[in-house]
Amino acid sequence: LAASCTASNRTFPPGFKFGAATAAYQIEGGWNATDKGESIWDRFVHDDPTRIPNNENGDIACDSYNNWERDIEMAAELGLHFYRFSLSWSRILPTGFNNRISEDGVRYYNNLIDGLLARGIEPFVTLYHWDLPQPIQDLSGWTNPLIAEWFAEYARVVYTLFGDRVKLWNTINEPIVVCDAVYNTGAYAPGVSNSEVAPYVCNKILLMAHAKAWRIYDEEFKPKYHGKVSITNNLLWVEPATEEFKELAELALQNFGGRYSHPIYSKEGGWPPGIEEVMFQNSLKRGYSKSQFPAFTQEEKDLVRGTFDFFAFNHYTSRYIRKAKEGETFAPFPVGDVEDLDGINMMPEGSEVGATSWSAVFPEGMRRLLVWLKEQYGDIEFVIAENGFPTYGGLEDTSRINYHKEYLEQMLLAINEDGVNVTHYTAWSLMDNLEWVDGYAHKFGLYEVDFTDPKRTRTPRQSAYYYASVIAHHSLDVSID
Ligand code: PNW
């Protein structure tokens, strides 16, 4: 409706904050600088260099290990209120454990944090964005229940080191990738595939790790530092292909999002409705004598429930879902492995797709997702921790500008029309970086990075000027040129 597009509806609420995001392995390089330990991504790309096209890897990446001052300058050029980045666990704790803290690692992050604060930019720090210390992987990584304790100890070290200056924390980025995508495909580090047991064991253990890390902050640090901690889910919006698949679409949302959200954000805690039964039936069908989906004890449920200060999520794209036909095969993640639901995910028809095959543009998904989340978990604070669009390069990135504009429009509708309390929006990414197994060809950056240049020169794209203008005017009513 034209009438709903009044100037005020295109203005962001007072105090609304804008940021941009990156992740350690994707930008830092310096993979073996001084005493940094080896991570599962270091091992994964060195063991078999052909895992990423053109034998690419994150050994140097954007060389942010040396270029961190330029990164801060870019954040300042954009006028960002906050910069979301992740810590490399093995850069801080070379063994993965708290017996040794790397002075060089601490210095690196202190420089970055202090440099941001000096420019008035808030650091929003993720503890874990997929680069597990290899020594912990050698002990079975996210499928060993003891990792919950080891992760919590790492979290305590980090809160102690940086908590006086960092007030916004994420424990873990996209658990669905850490557990489901990794073990369903074997295509990401650590390259282990085991789709019937590992994703679910990992799911539960990861929630325990998050909960312990959240509680340590809440009990030991929050009273003096007054910061906030949450986890960041990757949420795909799912529509039923036709009315008859409404229940299936709801189950898919519970499977992708609910398995990592319901135990934390729902009043009752524990697994989302419907999922335990589906998993039990699947286990029997696959020949197991009992469910391979681990139950929570009441004590575990209580430990995990309520461990949030806001709801953070990354959102990129949407799918339509229908029941599979006899003998149909299932696409693995990304796009969500729906084999467990006997469902087939379909790309929204007519959507533009970017460089990455999963990246269908479906802006309405943002609004519908926000409304669904508020219905599920209540009137809590929502933080959009990533949203962005991949191109193959070029400084004139009209498709990226349109993507951010249209997704922001839908976010504003959710805020203004549906009363959803969204407080932060984060563009992925501040700059081009290693797009994991897709390599450097898939570009998400507001800034272009020249990976052929030893200096890794960064140049603003048109989308950078657009985003800076949106931030400066606190409104979508800005001209693009
Ligand atoms: C995120 N999907 O992953 C990650 O947090 C980033 O590290 C990554 O670079 C970025 O998005 C772009 O890929 C995603 O299937 C993985 O919709 C899969 C999906 C979305 C995001």
General description of the model:
The protein is built from 15 helices and 13 strands. The chain has an 8-stranded parallel beta barrel, surrounded by 5 helices. It has 481 residues and is of the alpha/beta class. The chain starts with 16 loop residues before the first strand and ends in an 8-residue tail after the last helix. The protein has helices spanning 24-27, 40-47, 64-78, 89-92, 103-118, 134-137, 147-162, 175-185, 198-225, 246-265, 275-285, 298-304, 364-377, 398-416, 462-473; strands at 17-21, 82-86, 122-128, 168-173, 228-234, 237-240, 311-314, 318-323, 343-346, 382-386, 422-428, 447-449, 458-460. β10, α14 (398-416) and β11 (422-428) form a beta-alpha-beta unit. Helix content is 39%, strand content 14%. The longest helix is centred in the middle third of the chain and has 28 residues, at 198-225. α8 (175-185) runs antiparallel to α9 (198-225).
Structural class: alpha/beta
Instruction: Return Rg in Å.
Output: 21 Å
> What order do the strands of the largest sheet run in, or round the barrel if closed?
1-2-3-4-5-7-10-11
Average pLDDT confidence is 96
Ligand species: 4-nitrophenyl beta-D-glucopyranoside
Helicity range: 25-40%
Q: Which ranges are low-confidence, i.e. pLDDT below 50, for 5 or more consecutive residues?
A: 1-7
Q: Note the beta-strand portion.
A: 5-15%
Q: H/E element string?
A: EHHHEHHEHHEHHEEHHHEEEHEHEEEH
Largest sheet: 8 strands, parallel, barrel
Quaternary structure annotation: single chain
Distance separating the two termini = 26 Å
The dominant shape is: globular
**How many strand units?**
13
Q: Helix count, per DSSP?
A: 15
